[in-house]
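Working notes for the structural subgroup meeting. M.R. asked for a predicted model of this chain before we commit to crystallization trials. I am recording the input and output together here so anyone reviewing the notebook later can reproduce the run.

Input as submitted:
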Amino acid sequence: MSKALVFVLALACVLRAEVFPMTLRQAVDTALKQNPDLALARLDQEKARQGVRVARDPFTPRVVMGSGLAYTNGFPLSIEGAAPSVFQANATQFLFNRPQSYAVAQARENARGAEIGVAVKREEISYRTASLYLDAERAGRIGALAQKDAESMQRVLETVQAQVREGRALPLNEKQAAYDLARVRQVAESLEDDRQTAETSLAIALGFAAQDRVHPVAEERNAPVLAKSEDEVIQSALEDNKELRQLESQIAAKRLEMRGERAARLPRVDLVAQYALMSNINNYTEFFNRFQRNNGQLGMSFQLPLLAGPGVSAQMAQTQTDMDHLRVQVSAARNRIASDIQQAFRDEKKAVTGADVARLDLEVAREQLSVILAQMQEGRAALRQVEEARVLENDKWIAFYDAQYNVERARWNLLRLSGGLLASIEGAP
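Returned structure, recorded in token form:
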């Protein structure tokens, strides 16, 4: 492939790409509308809803119309169980069928479980979007500070080079300054790559194309506040956790399935109706004493299973095994949720402590820069010392921002585990 063609294709991709500036709340709202995983969950929910209609279908009359017209030679034989006729109609409907009734109830429970699954997916997508948004925002903010570091190190290198030319510094100092500049530039380039990757991942999570990007908008946003204690969060999470509710819905559906399998031994009653318009060319008058063109039947069909066979008990045993499996999952999920919340509180506490330490460290670095600036005005400090102090201050700013993002991420995680993530994001500006 020629270079010109590659250039044209790359240019076309760039021209198609779009950058969407968004706040955190706007990003989450967009994800809840366009995220493909959530769209699939909604399709599964719709499929489960239609499953209720499918299960109820045998309880509604089903009418089939057709014709059994045929040439008859000799005694009128039946065609698919019916005498030859010009026109015929058959209707059937379940009147009493306990297995199918339980199948309807199971379908409704499955639909309820699918609805809970959509809620679970909504919270999962919201947290994933918030995490990707924080990653992109952090990379952009820290990348800007790293770029300032590179500018300061460039001025330091220029100062050292002038000192080397004047004979007031060793060549080794110039090499060290050049190395420091290269290192800072490498960090800045890495952060820029991280920012582009995070913005692309965020765009995909929001349902945009892979060549698009979502750019976080600068906003005043504080870390969410936790209004409950650890024990209260654990208690409320175990009572209203959507994952647990979904597992419990699956157990309820399996319980209905077992009741339907047990009901296979019960009698069944169906409504049956039939109408047929006969023709007198089918030798009816030759073999029957009386012929009537219009004929109909309306009644009920009774079925009483006498020997259901071993399959019913085997199916019930399988269903019981599935229920036991789900109960083990519920128990494991409850323990995992409690453990995750306890660990999340420990992580949040460590993040807050780290943020306090980073804030104090930043205050020290800012005071040191102020002292060196004052010394420079008095002629007791060189430009190189000032720039190095600025680099140090920027590094402390980076550590401070990292600590702030760790606190915010830890609290979003706690809200996700407690089920209050969406409410907090929707209440954000």
